[in-house]
Specification:
Its main location: cytoplasm. Helices cover 44% and strands 18% of the residues. Helix 7 crosses helix 8. The chain is built from eleven helices and eleven strands. The chain has two domains: 4-140 and 258-303, Rossmann fold, CATH 3.40.50; 142-255, Rossmann fold, CATH 3.40.50. Strands 3-2-1-4-5-10-11 form a seven-stranded mixed sheet, with helices on both faces. The longest helix has 22 residues, at 141-162. By secondary structure, the protein is an alpha/beta fold. The structure holds adenosine-5'-triphosphate.
């Protein structure tokens, strides 16, 4: 009989992680389970840094960004010795199931730990990057996109007033999900993503075409993995002579109060993770597919490739001519 589970947040933090912790705790307590909150991701798991979480422990956090459990990237958990220490704590604290809220790396760690020590694990996708296969959306993505759109709106005001070209660099090392969504929603003239090669000639030609038509300002959204914002601005300035400014949003995109969509997603996925553990499931991840909460085998999910919607990318190009 399942009596006590653990929950941790791992990898980069994302807005909505707190709403997810709350859902895990409240759903578990509702069903008579005890919950241990493990601090600082897998580091706290290895060090036995954990505290009991009650209904009140998760009061007043649904609207807060970050994670009350703190998060980390744990080098020690990559080593078998680190994971063996974590298993000592599993026994010491009587943990019978683990919810891991984080990105694909965190899921990989959880899956390996399950294979080695048999502890049932369920992964909940929490990352602003939206780069986890097996789910249409990750917790924090919507908030990060809204933060980027808000920034684009503000920059648009000054870009228009000063008749300037602005390059806005957003997060996304391997994928352009944030850039595409924020660029489309913010009406950017050009969107650069790692998935699509681009040429400066093409970008500048587009800018010049707009200029000849009387368009005196332009916004270019670039995912950090496609090119550095500073470099893009320098190249544009060199080739066109346009006054080109850069804004790098950076970690701004990680923080802030989660949107309603992220809180709802976090609540549904957190609760589903507990249900799966109660049903005796193991090595699963939860996700949202076509509006429905789904459960998948972690390893199957991670073996799939996540791809951006290139039709949406083309549409953004058409709408911004
Ligand atoms: P984000 O998407 O925000 O980067 P993430 O979960 O993908 O989040 P990672 O740094 O890749 O972030 O992984 C988080 C932690 O998971 C790592 O620091 C490590 O402790 C653990 N981990 C990742 N891969 C493995 C692995 N192959 N074996 C064991 N542990 C792993």
């Amino acid at each position: 009989m399942l009596q006590r589970i653990g929950v941790l947040t791992s990898g980069g933090d994302s807005p909505g992680m707190n709403a997810c912790i709350r859902a895990v705790v409240r759903k578990a307590v509702y069903h008579g389970l005890e919950v241990m909150g493990i601090k600082r991701g897998f580091n706290g798991f290895i060090e036995g840094d954990m505290v009991p979480l009650h209904l009140g422990s998760v009061a007043d956090i649904i609207h807060r960004g970050g994670t009350i459990l703190h998060t980390a990237r744990s080098v020690q958990f990559l080593n078998p010795e680190g994971r063996a220490r974590a298993n000592e704590n599993v026994k010491r604290f009587g943990i019978q199931g683990l919810v891991v809220i984080g990105g694909d790396g965190s899921f990989r760690g959880a899956s390996i730990f399950n294979r080695e020590y048999g502890l049932p694990v369920v992964g909940v996708p929490g990352t602003i990057d939206n780069d986890i296969p097996g789910t249409d959306q990750t917790i924090g993505f919507d908030t990060a996109v809204n933060t980027a759109v808000e920034a684009i709106n503000k920059i648009r005001d000054t870009a228009t007033s000063h008749e300037r070209t602005f390059v806005i660099e957003v997060m996304g090392r391997n994928f352009g999900f944030i850039a595409l969504a924020a660029g489309l929603a913010g009406g950017a003239e050009t969107i650069l993503i790692p998935e699509r090669p681009f040429s400066y000639d093409e970008i500048c030609e587009r800018l010049m075409r707009g200029y000849r038509r009387g368009k005196l300002h332009s916004i270019i959204v670039v995912a950090e993995g496609a090119a550095g914002g500073l470099e893009v601005a320098r190249k544009i300035k060199e080739r066109t002579g346009f006054d080109t400014k850069v804004t790098i949003l950076g970690h701004l995109q990680r923080g802030g109060t989660p949107t309603a969509a992220d809180r709802i997603l976090a609540s549904c996925l957190g609760a589903k993770a507990v249900e799966l553990l109660m049903a005796g499931e193991t090595r699963k991840m939860v996700g949202i597919k076509a509006g429905k909460v789904v459960a998948l085998d972690i390893e199957d999910a991670l073996s799939q490739t996540r791809s951006i919607d290139l039709d949406m990318y083309s549409l953004a190009g058409i709408l911004s001519i």
